[in-house]
Amino acid sequence: MSFCFLFSWVLFFGKKRRDYLNIPSSFYFVVVFSEDLAEVCGIHVGDGYLRNDGRRRELDISGSFEESGYYDFHVKPLFEKVFGITLKNRIFPSRGTYGFVIRDRDIIRFFHDLGFPYGKKSTTVKIPSFVLKSNDALIHTRFLRGLFDTDGYLGFRKCYGNYTLFKVSRHHYPQIQLTTVSPYLSKQIILLLGRLGLAHYCYRDEPSGVGENVAYRIMLNGVSRLHQWMELIGMKNEVKRSRYVVWKAFGFCPTNLTFEQRKGILNGDIDPYTMGP
Taken in order 79, 80, 84, 86, is the CA torsion positive or negative? Predict the structure, then answer.
């Protein structure tokens, strides 16, 4: 389910605000509060930075070079669809990332009105209220997918103890992890997971040094949880999804591999059994 919201606060280039029916379309735009927007918000929570320092107003969305395919074929088209704009991905050499910048003032203000802060957001970021208040499970799953694809982790570990040689020597046991230093975000993620029936654990990691923050690790462990995640939420980031595909094909996924190495395994060019445990 989705609904439309017209920007009642849109800046009409110095003109007095009038009833929107009498304002040319170039002076306003409509956004649909849909599952697409929910995923956009999840992506922003993970990889976004909203800036308004008096000189620049911009939304920066960028990730690692390795994730350029995810940005080219999913993130960029998704933002273009939601906001009706044209974007261009590029490399940001100074910070070693790949993505795009939006400088449309209406979009910047819209994100701020959703509750996203200007500047650093790591300790204060929250899930927008339209996601939390929605009764539509797709709104919840798409937000979580956007967040996981940008800031989540899928890994596999070995077992220790009286298990088969395969289980003690190969990284086969799946673990999905979402980590945040925002206590608000951690509680809200837990709320959404509970609504979706996804069992999880939350661990509080105390800071190890001066200037560090408490971190909250939300974990979904085991084969059944991974299957549930893939069925309900899924992954659009091929860098992360490739770990799942290797595990599904071989029953384990070696650690510390690059995306290219995992593609080599899936293409039959690399033997995963020679790549360490």
Answer: positive
Task: Return d(Cα 9, Cα 237) in angstroms, integer.
Answer: 34
Token match 């993505």: residue? 99
Q: pLDDT tens digits for 101-150?
A: 999 999 999 999 999 999 999 999 999 999 999 999 999 999 999 999 99
Domain 3-274 CATH assignment equals 3.10.28.10: yes
Identify which of 130, 88, 139, 137 has the alpha carbon closest to the alpha carbon of residue 111.
130
- What average pLDDT does the chain have? 89
The Cα 139–Cα 129 span in angstroms is 11
CA-wise closest residue to 99 among 143, 64, 57, 146: 64
64-110 pLDDT tens trace: 999 999 999 999 999 999 999 999 999 999 999 999 999 999 999 99
Q: Are 264 and 270 in contact (CB under 8 A)?
A: yes
Residue 6 clears pLDDT 90, i.e. is over it = no
Q: Cβ distance 118 to 208 under 8 Å?
A: no
Q: Which helix (H) or strand (E) holds 185?
A: helix 183-195
Domain boundaries, the chain: 3-274
List, in sequence order, every beta strand (DSSP E) within 67-208. 90-92, 97-102, 152-157, 173-180, 201-205
- Bridge partners of 32? 4
Give the C-alpha separation, 33 to 6, whole Å.
10
Strands (E), the chain: 3-6, 30-33, 48-52, 57-63, 90-92, 97-102, 152-157, 173-180, 201-205, 215-221
